[in-house]
Automatic annotation (TrEMBL):
Protein name: Adap1 protein
This protein's UniProt keywords: Cytoplasm, GTPase activation, Metal-binding, Repeat, Zinc, Zinc-finger
Subcellular location: Cytoplasm
A single MF term (Gene Ontology): GTPase activator activity
Gene: Adap1
InterPro entries for this protein: Arf-GAP_dual-PH_domain (IPR052589), ARFGAP/RecO (IPR037278), ArfGAP_dom_sf (IPR038508), PH-like_dom_sf (IPR011993), PH1_ADAP (IPR037849), PH2_ADAP (IPR037851), PH_domain (IPR001849)
PROSITE patterns per the UniProt record, alphabetical: PH_DOMAIN
GO cellular component assignments: cytoplasm; plasma membrane
Top-level taxon: Eukaryota
PH domain sequence ranges: 57-158, 180-284
Pfam families in the cross-refs: PH
Length: 302
């Protein structure tokens, strides 16, 4: 440190960081921060490009522990990532000819969720299946392995987006490679008629998709709500309509959409403030052209 200083040291040990490689911040989980430090100084991956093969080769296969959709048990499954096919696949048996699931890189997201999954290396992967979000939960006992998988997925997304948006700069594409959720936690909700009682559900705000689950580790959401922009008639209000009954938690939120109102309640005022801030952030952001197509699908869902 005395002879190099921070800037010179960074210029050396980060001289060849691939643009897709995830640079953790202080708010990221311990695993990402630890593996970044080990990659940089111990393994010197950003000095020697050949050491980046595990996540830059465009193909990767291996065994990961995957949580069963119905029984909740983690079982060893073979995963294959192939950029050429634009897909991540997993197989129920090592010698199986056909994959159990094919996840298109185009629609895939990965985010570390150690607390939710109950393992320090827990990774949540989501993709769209019949235009609904499907969650799978995986981990590997070796921290480097699971972080390599994470960065391999980001690399595959990066190369897909480079083709899809040929004029875009690296700086434009990198924020689209993977995303953490804006907010997660329990709220109560009621149905469209707003006459039935409120039920406690686990909510995930993923960009403009607000999803709710009976259990945080469910494979599929019980429902999804699209949150558009204020220009399109979406508003977030503190509190509930005066006549509302059947809720147990005192701190209400009303989301007004062009079609209906959604009513939620939070257990604490702090929760309510955080959820309102998350919703407001989305509502204040103008919609992108492709988001209008997503909104149209939500409106015409069977």
């Amino acid at each position: 440190m005395a002879s190099h200083g921070n800037e010179a040291s960074r210029a050396t040990f980060e001289s060849k960081v691939p643009p897709f490689y995830y640079r953790p911040t202080f708010s990221d989980c311990q695993l990402l921060r630890e593996q970044w430090i080990r990659a940089k100084y111990e393994r010197q991956e950003f000095l020697h490009v050949e050491k980046q093969e595990p996540y830059s080769a465009g193909y990767r296969e291996g065994l990961l522990w995957k949580r069963g959709r119905d029984n909740g048990q983690f079982l060893s499954r073979k995963f294959v990532l192939t950029e050429r096919e634009g897909a991540l696949k997993y197989f129920n048996k090592n010698d199986a000819k056909e994959p159990k699931a094919v996840m298109k890189i185009e629609q895939l997201n990965a985010t570390f969720q150690p607390a939710k999954i109950g393992h320090p290396h827990g990774l949540q992967v989501t993709y769209l299946k019949d235009n609904s979000t499907r969650n799978i939960f995986i981990y590997h006992e070796d921290g480097k392995e699971i972080v390599d998988w994470f960065n391999a997925l980001r690399a595959a997304r990066f190369h897909y987006l480079q083709v899809a948006f040929p004029g875009a700069s690296d700086a434009d594409l990198v924020p689209k490679l993977s995303r953490n959720y804006l907010k997660e936690g329990y709220m109560e909700k009621t149905g469209p008629k707003q006459t039935e009682g409120f039920r406690k559900r686990w909510f995930t705000m993923d960009d403009r998709r607000l999803m709710y689950f009976k259990d945080p580790l469910d494979a599929f959401a019980r429902g999804e709500v699209f949150i558009g922009s204020k220009e399109s008639g979406y508003t977030v209000l503190e509190g509930l309509p005066p006549s509302t009954q059947g809720h147990h938690w005192p701190h209400g939120i009303t989301i007004v959409t062009p079609d209906r109102k959604f009513l939620f309640t939070c257990e604490t005022e702090a929760d309510q403030r955080e959820w309102i801030a998350a919703f407001q952030k989305v509502v204040d952001r103008p919609m992108l052209p492709q988001e209008y197509a997503v909104e149209a699908h939500f409106k015409h869902k069977p």
